Amino acid sequence: MKSDFIPINPTIIRVMRVLRIARVLKLLKMAKGIRALLDTVMQALPQVGNLGLLFFLLFFIFAALGVELFGR
Q1: Pfam families, per this entry (predicted)?
Q2: Are 40 and 46 in contact (CB under 8 A)?
């Protein structure tokens, strides 16, 4: 079965991706509420990372304890 498609130059696809990203960045530049929200999220990321590390450590400890208690 012959596939019917039009060959597209990869450079055109790259240009379209860049334009799509530029459009999103332009939207973020215009929307002050979204920008304030993103700034807040960026400021909170270090604390979220610390919390994620704490959860990982707790899960690891309880997993090791579970293997010791309920493993063969």
Answers
A1: Ion_trans
A2: no
